[in-house]
Amino acid sequence: MSTGKRLAKRSIIGTRVAALAEDGLYYSGMIQAVKTPAPFPENNNCINLTPNTRYTVRFDGGKMSCEYRDTELIGPGFRGMTGVRLRHGQRVFLTHNGREVRADVQQHDHHTDELRVQVHTPGAEAPVELKKKLDEIRLLESRKSARLADVDTDFARLADMAGDRRRASATIEVPSHHMQGSRKRGPSSSCDLGYGERDDQMNECNAALVLMSLSCSPNSPRPSAWGSRSSVSPGASSSSGSSWRSGTPSPPPASSSFSDEGIAMDYEDIHPRKKRINSVVFVCTWRGCGYNTNTCSAIEAHIRNTHLGPKKEGDSDHEEEFYYTEREVAAPAPPPTLSHRDMCRPPHEDPEYQRQLVGSYRQGLLSIQNGTARPISIPVTHPWSNTHSPKHMRLSAASGSPGSPGRRPRSDNKKCRKVYGMDQRDLWCTQCKWKKACTRFGD
DNA sequence: CTTGCCGGGTT
DNA sequence: AACCCGGCAAG
């Protein structure tokens, strides 16, 4: 199908990322939904790359999810570690003795980007303290092996902050410490994903979404709203800038492109109205109640008081969030050119470039948002930004007709090599390792 | 020069 | 298969 493209694109949904949580630590999670409030979800190489796109990240080990901007997410396709400031206690992963170990940050010297970390070496009792450079450090597990089935204290904290007492299983350290020679990684089946647990999580994730959308449905007046994009509807419980935009009419089903599976997320992007945000109104979606207000706290208070009743002790589940939606009262925006939808990729690619572009703009937005939003304030202050990169159509010409022999055109996408660098070669997708066409960032 | 990756080799 | 790598071609 898609011309000469070998492998299906992957949706960004499901991508593993790390994001800063309230406690100042990064936690790993998975992108659950993408919302692009700004006009042009994609195709807009850079200028439009809507710094407003929000990614609903569901943190591992809990039902907690928050929204972030791409610039706040760390992971493949998003920003890298550069410039990240890690706090004491941050759970990180690094390659030690040829295998991935987890560690806790003791101290991070922002100038030299050196960190003192305490490594939990499987097999060893006492944690070892190491000095590592920031770029040797990952916030995500590169693979989820049983032995790394980590989730302990840190996640407990996470859970706490979500008001969710759920605690993931205790650590199961593997006693033995076998380094299997050069083969670092399991079967390549998972390499594609890069993260083995993806499927599981996706399922879980979808299930959660279904539940969420169910609980969101009080908003009956617009039955069709959810319709078209069925499956993964917007990431429910979000937070601050939360709420999904499904309230507005959904776009014509599957407009334009639907080339392959990677596209799913693109539609997430489409959902949002093509407007430029001017101001936001929070609308109560409780059946029959049309109450609206322009502050998040007000709407929540309303919901809490009017519909939910007094909060129970220990109930900090932000339940209110399920019952309101945020609507943008927008000023008209220039019509986007939604061509090439099928070629679009997840919005991220050239952090450097984006950084400059969005930098200041973003800051403004951030502050605006912080003003109104409550739940998860994101104390991120990186001068970052990334997202789209100039993306060109690669459709035709290049190497001739589809199916023609000849080399595939070079794609401008990042490749594992670029993203992870030589020193993290074990994070590359199998194909990259073999000097084959990249399957992870491939087009 | 670097980089992506094809084609073909080896294990 | 899984893996490795020479070497071509694009940039």
TrEMBL record:
Which PROSITE patterns does the entry link to?
A: ZINC_FINGER_C2H2_2
Write out the GO MF terms. DNA-binding transcription factor activity; RNA polymerase II cis-regulatory region sequence-specific DNA binding; zinc ion binding
Q: Give the subcellular location.
A: Nucleus
Name the UniProt key words of this record, in alphabetical order. DNA-binding, Metal-binding, Nucleus, Transcription, Transcription regulation, Zinc, Zinc-finger
Superkingdom of this entry's organism? Answer: Eukaryota
Predominantly, its location class is nucleus
List the biased-composition ranges (Basic and acidic residues): 339-351
SMART domains named in the record = c-clamp
Q: Name one GO cellular component term.
A: nucleus
Q: InterPro entries from the xrefs? A: CR1/CR2-DNA-binding_regulator, DUF4772, Znf_C2H2_type
GO BP terms: namely: regulation of transcription by RNA polymerase II
The residues covered by the C2H2-type domain are 282-312
Q: What is this protein called?
A: C2H2-type domain-containing protein
Q: What is the lineage of its organism?
A: Eukaryota, Metazoa, Ecdysozoa, Arthropoda, Hexapoda
